[in-house]
Amino acid sequence: MRILTGIQSSGRPHLGNILGAIAPAIKLSQEAGNESFLFIADLHSLTTLRDGESLREFVRAIAATWLAFGYDTTHNTIWRQSRVPEHAELAWYLNCFTPMPMLENATSYKDKVEKLGSSAVSAGLFTYPILQAADILLYDADLVPVGKDQRQHIEMTRDIASSVNHQYNSEVFVLPKPRIDERIMTIPGIDGAKMSKSYGNYIDIFQPANELYKVIKKIKSDSTPLEDPKNPDTDITFQLYSLIASDEQIADMRQNYDNGGYGYGHAKKELYELILMNYATERERFDFYMTHNDELEKVLREGEEKARAVARQTIERVRTVMGFN
Ligand code: TYM
Predict the structure, then answer these.
(1) Among 45, 53, 117, 177, which is most buried by a count of CB atoms within 10 Å?
(2) Which of 3, 4, 7, when mutated, tests ligand 1's pocket best, judged by the most ligand atoms within 8 Å of its CB?
(3) Res 234: pLDDT
(4) 224 and 270: one domain?
């Protein structure tokens, strides 16, 4: 099966990206019979980030994260979207098959208009789902591991692909399916809202330990006194801990909450220590790639060649069916 997913380079990857998409995608890439296409959606990030220096750094951070989590690039592919111009080319063809109301109904677009007003929204942001559809269809992806917030984008991709297939009475595109882990559909941020780069409520597991601890200490909690029992199921620290801890560790912490005499500060310290322990290897590898740019660049260049070869074939197929060849 072909697996594909992308991460925008609008910031360094946070725990939500890692648990919602990066870790599940890497796991799928390691299953026998699967072939993976995991990429850096740098063109998408231009809709919100207009600072070249930051963009370059975030692109490196996303690439370093894929590698830190053990992505095997000898059997799979990793690339920067902007280096494969076929993404933009296919997006144009798909533009012509996308009804305006479909885009007007996109939740991410509606949210932005509501928050910022329509004059603050660029055409790029409006057509963002079409570029995403191109990313997926270009590589004949069967399965797209993503967080819950991306479900609508995958549905739009399927609708656009079906409409082209139907128009030309041909199986030019493979219809992809989303893979969304029900347990970790939406990872909360330190304020309890969805963890997001744009809300500034995220946990960056690659931060130096003391800075990471500072962020974890800021996780919102209620004012139940230390000695009283606490409800783990409504607490953000417990929720985050449960996502990365073993069943035994979760049961222990639950017991501590129930017993009382155990403060939120204790839980936060345990969460912090667990992150450092669970992700020790990933933190080391991340630092290695962030300080060895040549290694990173080599992997990306090789990936770009592989990605482009696949993308070219799809584009030729599309051009033929549409009458451009
Ligand atoms: P992006 O960069 O916003 O997020 C990357 C991935 O992380 C998931 N995610 C979360 N999952 C659980 N809880 C959270 N709090 C959380 N925050 C983020 C997202 O669901 C996503 O899977 N449009 C995409 C990037 C993209 C893409 C693609 C994805 C471009 N082309 C093609 C798949 C296929 C995005 O903005 O992701």
Answers:
(1) 45
(2) 7
(3) 96
(4) yes
In a domain, 114, yes or no: yes
CA torsion sign for 297, 299, 302, 305 is negative
Give the range of the structural domain holding residue 223, as residue numbers without chain letter: 209-278
The closest of 153, 195, 173, 158 to 19, measured between CA atoms, is: 195
The token duo for 228 is 């009283």
Residues 256 and 298 in one domain: no
* % of the chain at pLDDT higher than 90: 96
Residue 82 Cα distances to 39, 211, 244, 285, angstroms: 10, 32, 33, 25
- With the most atoms of ligand 1 within 8 angstroms of its CB, the residue from 17, 65, 135, 139 to mutate is 17
* 137 & 260 share domain: no
Residue 290 has pLDDT above 90, yes or no: yes
List residues near ligand 1 (CB under 6 A).
4-8, 16-17, 20-21, 41, 44, 132, 135-136, 144, 146-147, 149-150, 153, 186-187, 194-196
Q: What's the CA-to-centroid distance between 237 and ligand 1, angstroms?
A: 22
Ligand 1 atom with the smallest distance to the CA of 150 is 20
The predicted model scores a pTM of: 0.96
User: Which protein residue's CA is at the shortest distance from atom 31 of ligand 1?
Assistant: 132
Is position 73 within any domain? Answer: yes
- SS3 label, residue 31: coil
pLDDT classification of 184: cutoffs 50, 70, 90? confident
Question: Domain for residue 62, yes or no?
Answer: yes
CA angle 260, 264, 266 (to 5 degrees): 85
In the chain, the percentage of residues whose pLDDT exceeds 70 is 100
The HSE-up count of residue 238 (CA atoms within 13 Å, CB side) is 20
**Which ligand 1 atom lies nearest to the CA of residue 187?**
13
